[in-house]
Amino acid sequence: MMTDARKKPEDLRSARWFGPADLRSFGHRSRTMQMGYAPEEWQGRPVIAIVNTWSDLNPCHTHLRQRAEDVKRGVLMGGGFPVELPALSLSESLVKPTTMLYRNMLAMETEELLRSHPIDGAILMGGCDKTTPGLLLGATSMDIPAIFIPAGPMLRGNWGGKVLGSGSDSWKYWDELRAGKITQQDWLGVEAGIARSHGTCMTMGTASTMTAIAESVGMVLPGGSSILAADAGHIRLCSESGRRIVEMVWEDLTPKRIQIHKAFLNAINVAMAMGCSTNAIIHLIAMARRAGHDIGLDDFERASRVVPVIGNVRPSGSTYLMEDFFYAGGILGLMERMRAHLHLDCLTVSGRTLGENIAGAKVYNDDVIRPLDNPIYGEGSLAVLKGNLAPDGCVIKPAAMDQKFLKHSGPALVFDDYPSMKKAVDDETLDITPDHVLVLRNAGPQGGPGMPEWGMLPMPKRLLKEGHRDMLRLSDARMSGTSYGACVLHVAPESYIGGPLALLQTGDIVEVDVDARSINMRVSEEELARRRAAWTPPPPRFERGYGYAFTRHVQQANEGCDFDFLRTDFGAPVLEPVI
Ligand code: FES
Ligand code: MG
């Protein structure tokens, strides 16, 4: 497949460290021998970094410590020299205030780890939500050959014989507990059974969305993103990726050769068909822009009109989980089904095209992976809305909400911070109706800070007791990919920097029309101008440290929340280090 001239050992990047007959290289060689490696083990061989986001506090990546050894086995078989480089592990469940604050830090770390060391190719190991985009953003900017290995979804949850889904069932049973429908004892059973193996969330949350995107954009070996973490096939994926990355170095098959503009259009379409997490939008825009392509909300809007949801996985679907999806044929089966919506000539890390990768893939369960003419949702899973509340756009997930809110108007009930909103919704005397629009602001990229996953605002206890399970909610936050409900998210520009959401007041009428893709507040221009003149910015979130740099450089949600200075078109390219 690859026709370009192959690299020679003396062309390897690492040869700059190890090759020359000078004093510096003497140091590099003697210090490598200090670790017990004989020159035969590295000389003339591609040095492969295994960038591993394993940590003792990342339950989704528990197995990656051992899996790195399986990758090493493959690299050695392929004739390379494997070295493991640990990187920031972003556990979605344990890192506060939100992993989104640190996605760009992992991206920077990945890029600089690869740049500063004698590395010729990289295996990227991650999967828990932000680790996937973080690793890929960094590897793309560095642009040496790289393969992403997803951690793989965990097994289905189980409680008293009932199947439990990550995230979704925590919200569901929490609401049941608050409504008095289950006991505290039941709740403890849910707690023990909802995450019972290593691996990432097994609903179509951000983890499974992003690993599917990583594969459809060409950066994962075929089928790799659907393999369960606990399946022996996952071990084989690791050793196979190790063998393949060595070959990719000789081919000089770099991320930017793979991640072309059309490859991102493929990823958007696959995300839509999977019933993806709303977070996909932010990460995909950032990834595409790092690869040098102008992808934006409009591309998602176009796709959402034409690509139906055929992956029947919760929370867009009502029953199945990633384990079912894997057994039903996984992502290769899904992509085969939707081949009419894909650019099949895009090259992938396998060295073959996407079309070649999916040729012959089968679907074994037509209810889990639906045919295009029998989708679970006729349009794509996400919709982009614009209007005087969100001039730069916002996002809703029509596939996972009560359809009666697709067109809705109602009075706003506005909160400026999460704690006061939380207190209010727990108050059973709260003056609220099912027609109200619950609003949280100051939860965006700078205001949150880091745009936390607060966007599935909790249902007011009073409405829950009255039997309501959904209402229109609005914020500049994100929400977990495992969440559901009529939640308008990612409002841009965010309120913290004075976006129009900052001007909304309790009692104003908010109008949402998903079919028309519009969102507006029924407030006159004159009144908005008056409020704008009276508006004062909230106090700064950070006055030192990483957060200080974050709030100064993070871009808005519609731009992917990348740092401005990490953009590919920001300044001259970074040169290779002086050795
Ligand atoms: Fe790690 Fe959901 S918490 S993938
Ligand atoms: Mg998540």
From TrEMBL:
Q: Does Transmembrane helix show up as a keyword for this record?
A: no
The UniProt keywords, alphabetically, are: Iron, Iron-sulfur, Lyase, Metal-binding
**Annotated Dihydroxy-acid/6-phosphogluconate dehydratase C-terminal domain residues:** 367-561
Q: What is its EC number?
A: 4.2.1.9
Give the family this protein belongs to, as stated in its UniProt record. Answer: Belongs to the IlvD/Edd family.
Its name, as the record gives it, is L-arabinonate dehydratase
Q: Name one Pfam family in it.
A: ILVD_EDD_N
* InterPro entries, sorted: Dihydro-acid_dehy_C, DiOHA_6PGluconate_deHydtase_CS, ILV_EDD_C, ILV_EDD_N, IlvD/EDD_N, Sugar_Degrad_Dehydratases
Q: In Gene Ontology terms, what is one molecular function of this protein?
A: dihydroxy-acid dehydratase activity
Q: Does the keyword Metal-binding apply?
A: yes
Domain of life, per UniProt, equals: Bacteria
